[in-house]
Amino acid sequence: MIIDIVSIFPEYLEPLSLSLVGKAQETGKLTVRVHDLRDWSAAPHHRVDDTPYGGGPGMVMDAPTWGRALDEIAQSCDSKPLLVIPTPSGKVFDQPTARSWVGNQSIVIACARYEGIDSRVSQHYQTRSDWAGVQEVSIGNYVLAGGEAAALVMVETVARLIPGVLGNPESAPDDTFSRADGLLEGSVYTKPPTWRDLEVPPVLLSGNHQAIDQWRAASAEEKTRNLRPDLLP
Ligand code: JDK
Predict the structure, then answer these.
(1) Closest Cα partner for 137 from 147, 125, 129?
(2) 8 lines ligand 1 (CB under 6 A)
C-alpha cells in the first residue's frame, strides 16, 4: 500500500517513521511519501492561498496549486488513487471507513490549512476517471488547525489493519470498535497482583477460563454503560 501525503508542513508527518507505522514501512508493507505543496506553487514566495470569494475571514488554498500537485502525484501511482481530504465538515472517520480503505493500493491525503481548499478541487477529482474517488473526512467533532493531525490518525488506523503489520494477527479484530458485539473492551491488568493497595480482580488469577470470560463480558458491559451508553444494543 502506498500513501502519499501533501502538506505545507511536511515535518508534521515525521512521526510516521516511528513505531508501528515506521515498522510497516521498514518491512515494505506500507510506503508513506510526504510532499511539500509549495513545490507546486506558481506564485511569488511559494504562496498557496488567496482571499475567499464572497468575503469573510481567513484565506483559502487555491485550486491551481492543488491541481498541479495532485495530477503529478497521481501519475506516479500504479493504480487509481483514492483522494482523502481531512476537513471538519466531512463524514466522520471510523473503523469501517479504515477497513474500506485497506484494499486500496494508492491513497493520497490532501492536508489543508487556513480555511480549507477551494471546493472545486474535491468536485473535480470526484469526476476524474483516473482517480478512485474523493472522500472528505473528519476525525471527530472538534476543529483542528489543519489536516496533518487527522492524516496521522488515519494512516496509523489503516496501517495496523494491513495484513502482517500487527505482531499478533488476533489483536486487530478483537479491539474496541471491532468487537462482534460492538461494546467497549473491558478492563485489563498485568503484574504486580497488588499495586498501591489495588488488587487485580481475583477471578483473573483463578485459571478458570469460563469464569474469566464471564467476568470480561460483565466488565465490557459495565464500562460501555458508564462511558459509551450509545453503543449498547
Ligand atoms: C483540515 C484547515 C482548519 C478552521 C471553518 C469550521 C465551523 C467554520 C477549517 N476533524 C477535524 N477537525 N478539524 C479538521 C480540519 C481542520 C482544518 C483543515 C481538517 C484545514 N482547517 C479550519 C476553520 C474552518 N470553520 C467550523 C465554522 C475550517 C478535521
Answers:
(1) 147
(2) no
> 30 in a domain, yes or no?
yes
Query: Which value, in Å, is the radius of gyration of the alpha carbons in the chain?
Result: 22
Domain assignment present for residue 220? The answer is yes
- Main-chain phi, psi angles of 70, to 5 degrees: -70, -40
What's the domain range around 214? Answer: 179-231
Taking CA 163 as the corner, what is the angle to CA 177 and CA 186, rounded to the nearest 5 degrees? 25
What gap in Å lies between CA 49 and CA 40, rounded to an integer?
Answer: 12
Q: What is the pTM for the complete model shown?
A: 0.96
Ligand 1 midpoint to CA 54 (Å): 19
Establish whether 179 is a catalytic residue: no
Model confidence over 10-27: pLDDT tens digits? 999 999 999 999 999 999
Query: What is the spatial distance between Cα 90 and Cα 79, in angstroms, rounded to a whole number?
Result: 25
**Are 203 and 136 part of one and the same domain?**
no
CB of 8 closer than 8 Å to CB of 48: yes
Does the active-site annotation cover 175? yes
Backbone angles phi, psi at 34, to 5 degrees: -110, 135
- How many independent structural domains does the chain possess? 2
Is 135 in the same domain as 20?
yes
pLDDT for 188 equals 97
Atom in ligand 1 nearest the alpha carbon of residue 93: 10
pLDDT digits (tens, 9 = 90+) for 117-146: 999 999 999 999 999 999 999 999 999 999
CATH number at 214 reads 1.10.1270.20
